[in-house]
Task: inverse folding
């Protein structure tokens, strides 16, 4: 396959460049760049990523969470701590970097699992239809009516050797259903298109049709869903950490930092503990969602054009 | 229509059964048993083992499950490990609080979202619509707890307009005094919860109106010379509002799952707070009961949605 | 007599209707109900019917993309309604399809090269160079420029896309192509062009067509034998001469009388003929249709000519015909 592509590009480089698929990702990117607010949101995302992931390169994670009682509850800018320190004398800026990174990583991890499972389930369910679809959809229905957060919290407390990975799996158990539904609906609409029939008569297997024919037609939807799901999953992780049943206590999270606001004393007297994290989470949620929505609008516009 | 409702209820039965099995195994995964709370250094291990045997804790899982379900039907959800009172009475007190909070939230939610949705749909792409869209985007994007924290910080602590915790002031006296104090306490959490619940209703309503506007029947009405206002109120609005009715069940469900965070931030003694307290104290009988209740209520909420939908929309009824 | 290539025997495609409290199957939609026909090598067999008559479903069943309820499709002495038999024979290498909507039948995300090469990759072992040569050759046959292979479907006109569809269908040198209304979505001027390409290819490679259409004019231009379908059943089958010159069933007559004609001089005469046919249809419903509104089983009239009428009615009709002659 790749050899063929290479040959093609060697022989007819110029001509190959002329054409692009009907609804390519590039077009969507162009739409985003045209939308100034979306562009700003995108830049904010990049800055936050640089701050958290870049910053964490310079930090020793064991030192960040090291307890130093003497430095506890330093205020803004005291002793070289720009945003002060928490009850254990840990520097808030460092915790923001690590916590932000962890929260984003968990969001990405959960999204990866959910999108993968949801995509495969949605493709299979929508493509085959019939009994397979009926059974899968009953399962999806059931998972969706489960009281998600209480079960997640209980699982967090009872699972042995609890770690950040456990959290990814626990959140994913409930997260894949929306994605599966979303893709199923679309695959269902593609299933009876003539190009699928044409592939069948061309002798392609069901698997090949699902992943090589139908999947390329839903890539832009996949991108939109991934972006919005990341935002949602960061929200779920931080919520759980905020309540106290998210990331393990030794692993900083934005939710844990915001959790300081559960103590009225902190709310009034020590805003440095929770306010920066709150602002950062706000910035992350608002910008990722805005980019996601802008992508959605661009995608819708393209669909209307076709 | 009764057939549709009946079938929908029948579908719920296996869901309830699976839910109960799931909760049962979740309960089994939790450490501790009804006697853990009563153990003290003087307890004779042999006596304890005998007690466990007598209580059937060594029976095979299906037998234990059957007994547990049997007790549920008798209204016995076990005794709290920590508080040593029947779980049902523990939950009943809190459920009332959660009920009032949810009720007020629902009322405020619809009171806000219907006008917003209608305005946005009516003035599609004008400044009114754009303003609503921005509002909608914020309520959608911001995680609920961040919303609550900022709300309580601004209106509770900084401005001091609302109380920051509890369900009633200890100084409140008399029927009206107590009621007023209760209302005052749930007002801020209810408004904040309502605001973040509006998103989907506003969106559905707006889309419904926008879509209905270009339907042929609306064009027919226009071409017959029906005044714009009448067309909007009698045709577009009615057809767009009906589907909103079915969102009711979903809203209730959403509030239940969200109750934990609101009640935590506002230290409001409802079921969500009880759940968090119980998990902090590892009070597993209470937890199990609460999960079962949350699950059942969610199922009922969905049932309600579907039933309302089948009343409103004749197309999905069984012929 | 020409060698037959495929035989359809008592083909039925039924879809269940579920309803009631338990969602049980209460009835069936009889999309295709007891259809039998035989297509000879290298001929064009026309299948005509109004929309919803089951003609496309029949075509799809023959290609193997529509599950069959009962009946047989015999190809090379085996029943190809079974997927395992199709796989054994590499059935779709020999039996291909051309679709009505050229836009939706070409995957918008694939280049023309990959679209045309898909059956080749699945059925033939060619090196990349051979494959490319073959694709170029196919494009040449349907009269498309060679740089088309790097383009995407949306960059072509409807007629061009349909020619790409034809190229894909003939890519594996098939012996039968089911053409499901291949030109009804095209402009009239382009229709003739595509039809001529199809005829040209047929002569060159001895391909048989099952030509599905609702347009009797187009079918007359294309096919030697034809079948008329109505409500899932065959109404009348026969040679072109049989159907066009001696239609027996009222449905066929109505269809024929509905062909628009540019013949100003005989305008009154045509109109009178149409009204006669309509009157005949109105008066004797029960003669043509059973109580469910379906046509009767086929009866032989002569050689290849079969019509869906009760036996005695056939004789009666024949006498009428003779009298008229």
Result:
């Amino acid at each position: 396959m790749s050899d063929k592509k290479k040959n093609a590009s060697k022989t007819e480089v110029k001509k190959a460049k002329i054409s692009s698929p009907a609804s390519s990702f590039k077009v969507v990117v162009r739409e985003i760049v045209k939308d100034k607010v979306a562009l700003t949101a995108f830049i904010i995302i990049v800055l936050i990523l640089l701050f958290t992931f870049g910053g964490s390169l310079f930090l020793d994670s064991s030192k960040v969470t090291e307890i130093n009682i003497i430095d506890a509850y330093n205020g803004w800018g005291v002793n070289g701590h720009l945003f002060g320190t928490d009850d254990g004398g840990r520097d808030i800026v460092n915790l923001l970097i690590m916590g932000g990174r962890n929260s984003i990583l968990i969001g990405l991890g959960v999204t990866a699992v959910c999108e993968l499972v949801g995509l495969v389930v949605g493709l299979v369910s929508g493509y085959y239809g019939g009994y397979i679809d009926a059974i899968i959809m009953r399962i999806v229905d059931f998972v969706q009516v489960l009281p998600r957060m209480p079960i997640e919290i209980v699982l967090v407390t009872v699972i042995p050797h609890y770690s950040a990975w456990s959290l990814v799996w626990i959140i994913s158990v409930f997260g894949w259903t929306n994605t599966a539904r979303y893709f199923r609906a679309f695959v269902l609409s593609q299933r009876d298109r003539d190009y699928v029939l044409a592939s069948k008569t061309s002798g392609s297997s069901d698997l090949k049709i699902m992943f090589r024919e139908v999947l390329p037609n839903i890539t832009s939807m996949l991108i939109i869903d991934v972006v919005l799901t990341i935002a949602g999953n960061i929200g779920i992780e931080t919520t759980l950490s905020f309540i106290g049943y998210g990331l393990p206590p030794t692993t900083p999270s934005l939710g844990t930092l915001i959790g300081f606001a559960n103590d009225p004393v902190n709310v009034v007297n020590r805003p440095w503990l929770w306010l920066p994290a709150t602002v950062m989470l706000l910035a992350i949620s608002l910008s990722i969602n805005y980019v996601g929505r802008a992508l959605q609008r661009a995608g819708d516009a393209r669909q209307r054009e076709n | 229509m009764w057939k549709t409702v009946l079938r929908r209820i029948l579908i719920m039965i296996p869901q309830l059964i699976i839910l109960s099995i799931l909760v049962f195994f979740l309960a089994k995964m939790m450490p501790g048993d009804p006697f853990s709370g009563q153990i003290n250094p003087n307890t004779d291990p042999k006596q304890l083992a005998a007690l466990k045997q007598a209580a059937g804790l060594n029976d095979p899982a299906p037998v234990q499950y059957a007994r547990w379900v049997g007790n549920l039907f008798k209204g016995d959800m076990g005794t709290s490990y920590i508080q040593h009172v029947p779980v049902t009475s523990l939950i009943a007190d809190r459920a009332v609080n959660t009920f009032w909070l949810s009720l007020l939230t629902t009322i405020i939610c619809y009171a806000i979202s219907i006008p917003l949705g209608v305005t946005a749909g009516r003035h599609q792409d004008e400044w009114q619509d754009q303003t609503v869209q921005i509002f909608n985007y914020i309520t959608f994007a911001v995680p609920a707890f961040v919303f609550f924290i900022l709300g309580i910080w601004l209106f509770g602590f900084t401005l001091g307009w609302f109380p920051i915790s509890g369900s009633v002031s200890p100084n409140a006296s008399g029927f009206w005094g107590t009621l007023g104090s209760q209302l005052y306490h749930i007002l801020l959490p209810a408004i904040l919860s309502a605001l973040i619940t509006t998103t989907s209703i506003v969106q559905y309503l707006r889309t419904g109106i926008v879509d209905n506007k270009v339907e042929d029947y609306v064009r027919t009405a226009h071409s017959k010379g029906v005044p714009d206002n009448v067309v909007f109120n009698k045709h577009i609005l009615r057809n767009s509002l009906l589907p909103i009715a079915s969102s009711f069940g979903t809203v209730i469900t959403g509030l239940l799952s969200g109750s934990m965070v609101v009640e935590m931030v506002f230290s409001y003694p409802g079921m969500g707070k009880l759940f968090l307290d119980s998990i902090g104290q590892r009070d597993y009988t209470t937890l199990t009961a609460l999960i079962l209740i949350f699950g059942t209520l969610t199922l009922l909420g969905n049932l309600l949605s579907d039933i309302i939908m089948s009343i409103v929309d004749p197309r999905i009824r069984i012929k | 007599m020409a060698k037959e290539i495929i035989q359809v025997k008592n083909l039925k495609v039924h879809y269940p209707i579920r309803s009631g409290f338990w969602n049980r199957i209460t009835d069936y939609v009889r999309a295709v109900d007891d259809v039998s026909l035989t297509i000879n090598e290298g001929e064009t067999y026309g299948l005509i019917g109004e929309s919803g008559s089951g003609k496309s479903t029949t075509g799809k069943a023959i290609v193997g993309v529509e599950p069959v309820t009962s009946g047989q499709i015999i190809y090379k002495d085996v029943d190809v309604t079974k997927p395992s038999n199709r796989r054994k024979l590499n059935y779709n290498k020999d039996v291909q399809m051309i679709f009505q909507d050229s836009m939706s039948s070409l995957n918008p995300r694939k280049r023309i090269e990959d679209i045309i090469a898909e059956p080749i990759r699945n059925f033939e072992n060619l090196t990349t160079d051979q494959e490319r040569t073959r694709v170029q050759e196919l494009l040449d046959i349907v009269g498309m420029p060679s740089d088309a292979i790097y383009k995407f479907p949306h960059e072509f006109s409807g007629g061009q896309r349909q020619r790409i569809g034809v190229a894909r269908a003939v890519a594996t040198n098939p012996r039968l192509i089911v053409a499901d209304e291949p030109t009804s979505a095209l402009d009239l001027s382009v229709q003739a062009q595509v039809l001529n390409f199809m005829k040209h290819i047929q002569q060159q490679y001895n391909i048989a067509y099952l030509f599905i259409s609702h347009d009797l004019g187009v079918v007359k231009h294309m096919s030697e034998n034809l079948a008329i379908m109505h409500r899932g059943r065959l109404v009348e089958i026969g040679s072109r001469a049989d159907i066009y010159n001696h239609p027996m069933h009222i449905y066929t007559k109505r269809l024929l009388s509905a062909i628009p004609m540019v013949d100003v001089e005989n305008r009154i005469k045509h109109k009178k003929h149409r009204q006669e046919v309509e009157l005949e249809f109105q008066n004797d419903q029960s003669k043509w249709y059973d109580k469910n509104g379906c046509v009767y089983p086929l009866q032989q009239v002569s050689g290849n000519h079969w019509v869906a009428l009760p036996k005695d009615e056939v004789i009666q009709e024949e006498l009428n015909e003779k009298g008229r002659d």
In short: The CA atoms of residues 216 and 222 of chain B lie 10 Å apart. Chain B touches chain C at residues 3, 6-7, 318-319 (CB under 8 Å). The mean pLDDT of chain B is 83.
